[in-house]
Amino acid sequence: MARPVPIAVFVSPHGYGHAARTCAIIQALFELEPAARFEVFTLVPEWFFLDSLACPFRYHILRTDVGLVQTTALAEDPHATLALLEDFLLFKDDLVDRLATELRDLSCGLMLADISPLGIAAARHAGIPSALIENFTWDWIYGAYLDAYPAFEGPIAVLTRLFEAADLRIQTEPVCRPVAGAVTVPPVSRTPRTGRDEVRRRLAIPAEARMVLVTMGGTPWQHASLARLETFSHVIFVIPGAADSPERRGSLVALPHRSGHYHPDLVHASDAIVGKLGYSTLAETYAAAVPFGYAPRPTFRESAPLASFIGNRMAGLEVTPEELYSGSWPARVPELLALGRPTARRENGARAAARLLLGLLRGSANLG
Fold this sequence. Notes:
This protein has helices at 17-32, 46-52, 78-88, 93-105, 117-126, 138-143, 153-164, 196-203, 226-230, 263-268, 279-288, 303-313, 321-326, 333-337, 350-365; strands at residues 5-11, 36-42, 57-61, 70-72, 75-76, 110-114, 130-134, 168-172, 183-185, 210-215, 235-240, 247-249, 252-255, 272-276, 292-295, 316-318. The protein is an alpha/beta fold.
């Protein structure tokens, strides 16, 4: 039996998109190297990893970065973000020392960070190789706020040095800012586990019905259009997070946030997706080859590259924030469904990223 190979994983708690991407990659890595064991450091709830992973891991509660403070699913607060960054980026020596000691005590042979600067700092101090997974990094995101908030200049400099210190940098499409020396892989998403027909059977949705999944990527959201969706003709809407327990009201299926339905299964069982423009929703919609009615975040720098990717590689249409807030967006659903399914081959970048990580791990641990 191969000896266990512990891998430290530091995940940004900014939404669930970073955790979803990381889960897809470490699951693929485990399938390539069954001796791998994962030590997950994050504030993302443990249940998310329990629901997403079929491999051994231990969960460590830790703030691994600040990201952006959100006021709503579509708006952020740069001022509050700066206040948190000033303390967090001090990276007090005792914290980095403690984490480095913990990584050594756990015999970690690799540290994988989904845009967590603390993971890179701890890995360098522990003397183990580090890998950075990203389609953007926080120094680039914060750069958009410099004119209005010059105090971001200091944190940007610190973050840039840390991100550049990673031994391996993997950029996942859609890439916001290509970086020399990084390796690019296709969009990374978790794979579905249950077939379309079975998912619909469990939801009591006929196989021939048009199903639209409405998602805000795990961010709490007050939907303004539920009553209208209940009486919509010829379409059934499924909305995670819209009820405390599963409810069927006419053409609306309202689900709790943690519904027992694996989110990629819901995506792949749908005929279209409507929701916030974020990485994991885009990547899972891309993999399912269904049209995406996306609501951009106008002040978030990632939105434009993601929207451009949809325009070039996917079937999609923009749903304005005003349409979401007012509840008028259902009028766009026939237009969205009429786009049909893209036919181009969809490659998941999770396995390509896992092979790169395995090469780094084997090189450092002398594995066979």
